[in-house]
């Protein structure tokens, strides 16, 4: 396997709308990111992934692109972006853009034309089917509305939208669409961007004949949201290979495919180490456990991915992104052991095989907030979920409680920079509420505190960059069969590291085998100060085993 610079890099995801507002309109922007580049360089991350910054009516916060060649006004200008690119490069960081090419906005000129008549040359840029009103072409459900079909009165046809009706799906069977998108992406690479995160890339090819889903209805009106059916369809792999050969390869672009339904089998095809398609994929198996997980679930997922993809393909390790509640609140402990749990989760992501991803605010242990009314939510999906829950008989209180656990808006509250008003994010009321815990949890305090989550993350990121064992070392799960202490080894050449993670609020005994290993180990990084005989709650430790001989 050939080595590449990004193997030892850490990806940092920025949600520009909530990162830093530079001009006091309550919305984060590109100049705000520039202001924080020194912070990011100090943190040590290598790749900045910006969620969409293109012109958009923001039905889904930028994941509905109106113009791929322009920057959203709220975020600034093309000059601002070029400035960001130059400065980031100057500081040794790369920038990748979030390319949304499964769909566009319904306000994109292509769709406006496509919609204008059945014989418009762009009609075929999207997926249109005849049908009569109230009888959709199939039973597909959408992520943001009951049906995935919208009836167009004028032409009496339906168009497909897996997401909102303002996000019509492009027709990737049409070579004209392929050419336009390829050219657009080349244009960004020529400008100097270092690669792309490819939004829902596993769904760009639809199943032949658009068959009904045979699964039971998932929403009130009988439609079935069936992501598995929408993904990994015939023709996808050849398209990814073409993207690589025609768009990415000349520029050595780093590409990250969002593949929600991918198994290791798809990872090996789409992100093979020979570099024939994408650089890496991100799968959803860990985060799909958010409504209830056990240590065994996490271990099983890691082992299955390791055994099936090691030295064959690359995937991202993450527990957070802009679509997920905050990881400390879901996989950790957001109260008594917040700091320990935040450090533990960071340790896990940085020491497992795969490329680590950090989502803004994770490095200071930001938590979910508390929303009290539906009006406080901003996300289109939260609004849809709320209406579905209410239709299904939930009380308002129950619906809000559900959202307080799972809403994507938790990840989108402003980055907490300091203790001043609006957490130092802006001088104006922000577009979405600030988490009320900002006076305690913010960057300024943590920069000054040696024992902070932030300083711990810096150490982790540095280690990941410098120590090949974390990147290329084999993995062996040595956890006791039951119990909460996830224990594994990384083994590279003649070095062995031991990682211990107590994923629970309880102190846990250490089994014999691990105690004997510990006795022969040197501690490299831990989230407790004292040396341990038992594993305290949320204990995380990285050790080097002094001799390679494992009993
Ligand atoms: C991806 C994005 C999500 C967006 C959706 C539609 O899953 O991460 O934020 O809503 O695609 O573009
Ligand atoms: Ca602004």
Portion of residues in beta strands equals 15-25%
Distance between the termini: 30 Å
Report the total helices: 18
Strands ordered across the widest β-sheet? 11-10-9-5-2-1-13-12
What is the C-alpha radius of gyration, as a whole number of Å?
23 Å
What would the average pLDDT be, to the nearest integer? 97
Structure at a glance:
With 551 residues, the chain is of the alpha/beta class. Helix content is 31%, strand content 15%.
Characterise the protein shown here.
This protein is α/β, with parallel strands linked by helices and 551 residues long. Helices cover 31% and strands 15% of the residues. An 8-stranded parallel beta sheet has the order 11-10-9-5-2-1-13-12, covered by helices on one side. A 5-stranded antiparallel beta sheet has the order 14-15-16-18-17. β10 (254-258), α8 (264-270) and β11 form a beta-alpha-beta unit. α5 (175-191) runs parallel beside α7. The chain binds alpha-D-glucopyranose (GLC) and calcium ion (CA). The site of alpha-D-glucopyranose (GLC) has 9 residues, from loops. Residues 21-23, 25, 27, 29 line the site of calcium ion.
């Amino acid at each position: 396997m050939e080595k590449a610079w990004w193997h030892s890099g850490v990806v940092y995801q920025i949600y520009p709308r909530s990162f830093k507002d530079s001009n006091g309109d309550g919305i984060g922007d590109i100049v705000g990111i520039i202001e924080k580049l020194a912070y990011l360089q100090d943190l040590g991350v290598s790749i900045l992934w910006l969620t969409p910054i293109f012109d958009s009516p923001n039905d889904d916060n930028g994941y509905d692109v109106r113009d791929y060649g322009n920057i959203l006004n709220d975020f600034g200008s093309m000059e601002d972006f070029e400035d960001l690119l130059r400065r980031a490069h100057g500081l040794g960081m790369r920038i990748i853009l979030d390319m949304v090419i499964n769909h566009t906005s319904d306000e994109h000129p292509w769709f406006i034309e496509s919609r204008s008549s059945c014989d418009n040359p762009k009609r075929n840029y999207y997926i249109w089917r005849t049908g009569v009103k109230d009888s959709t072409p199939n039973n597909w459900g959408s992520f943001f509305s009951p049906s995935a079909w919208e009836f167009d009165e004028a032409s009496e046809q339906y168009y497909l939208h897996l997401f909102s009706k303002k996000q019509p799906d492009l027709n990737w069977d049409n070579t004209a669409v392929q050419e336009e998108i390829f050219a657009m992406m080349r244009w960004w690479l020529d400008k100097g961007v270092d690669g792309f995160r490819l939004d829902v890339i596993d769904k760009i090819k639809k199943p032949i004949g658009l068959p009904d889903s045979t699964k039971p209805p998932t929403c009130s009106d009988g439609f079935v949201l069936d992501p598995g059916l929408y993904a990994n369809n015939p023709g996808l792999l050849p398209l990814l290979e073409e993207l690589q050969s025609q768009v990415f390869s000349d520029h050595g672009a780093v590409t990250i495919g969002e593949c929600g339904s991918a198994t290791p089998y798809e990872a090996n095809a789409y992100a093979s180490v020979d570099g024939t398609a994408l650089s890496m994929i991100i799968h959803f198996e860990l985060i799909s456990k958010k409504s209830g997980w056990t240590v065994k679930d996490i271990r099983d997922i890691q082992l299955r991915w390791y055994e099936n993809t090691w030295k064959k393909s690359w995937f991202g390790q993450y527990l957070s992104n802009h679509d997920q509640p905050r990881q400390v609140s879901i996989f950790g402990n957001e109260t008594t052991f917040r700091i320990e749990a935040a450090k533990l989760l960071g340790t896990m992501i940085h020491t497992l095989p795969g490329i680590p991803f950090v989502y803004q605010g994770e490095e200071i242990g930001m938590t979910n907030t508390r929303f009290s009314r539906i009006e406080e939510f901003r996300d289109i999906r939260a609004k849809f979920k709320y209406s579905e829950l209410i239709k299904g008989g939930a009380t308002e209180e129950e619906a809000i409680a559900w959202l307080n656990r799972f809403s994507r808006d938790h990840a989108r509250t402003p980055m907490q920079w300091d203790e001043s008003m609006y957490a130092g994010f802006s001088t104006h009321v922000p577009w979405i509420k600030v988490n009320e815990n900002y006076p305690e949890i913010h960057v300024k305090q943590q920069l000054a505190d040696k024992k902070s989550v932030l300083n711990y993350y810096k150490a982790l990121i540095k280690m990941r960059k410098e120590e090949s064992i974390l990147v290329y070392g084999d993995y062996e799960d040595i956890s006791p069969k039951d119990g909460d202490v996830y224990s594994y080894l990384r083994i590279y050449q003649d070095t062995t590291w031991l990682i211990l993670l107590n994923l629970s609020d309880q102190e846990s005994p250490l089994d014999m085998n691990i105690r004997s290993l510990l006795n022969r180990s040197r501690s490299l990084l831990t989230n407790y100060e004292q040396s341990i005989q038992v594993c305290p709650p949320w204990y995380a430790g990285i050790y080097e085993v002094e001799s390679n001989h494992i009993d």
